[in-house]
Amino acid sequence: MKYRVHRFDIRMTSEQSKLEQFLNSLAGEVVAIIPNVSWFPKTQVDFLLIVEKLG
Predict the structure, then answer these.
(1) Cα–Cα distance measured from residue 55 to residue 47, given in angstroms and rounded to the nearest whole number
(2) Within a 10 A sphere around the Cβ of 50, how many other Cβ atoms?
């Protein structure tokens, strides 16, 4: 089993369609989506790590 980890930079308030297109373009199965949350000066998601299972 092989896995690939993608880093996806995103603004959660305005880029929902960009994320949707990216997920639909993956060839393998999405195993996990891990958000990187920053807490200062305000709470926001900077990027997502998307784990894809290949083959």
Answers:
(1) 26
(2) 19
How many angstroms separate the Cα of 8 from the Cα of each of 1, 23, 31, 42?
23, 10, 15, 20
pTM of this structure: 0.85
Tokens of 45: 């998601």
For residue 1, give Cα distances in angstroms to 4, 22, 27. 10, 22, 14
Q: Which of 45, 4, 46 is nearest to 25 (CA)?
A: 4
Helix, strand, coil abundance in the chain, percent, nearest 5: 20, 55, 30
The continuous run of DSSP H or E covering 33 comes out as strand 29-38
Q: Per-residue pLDDT averaged across 27-39, rounded?
A: 95
Amino acid sitting at position 8? F
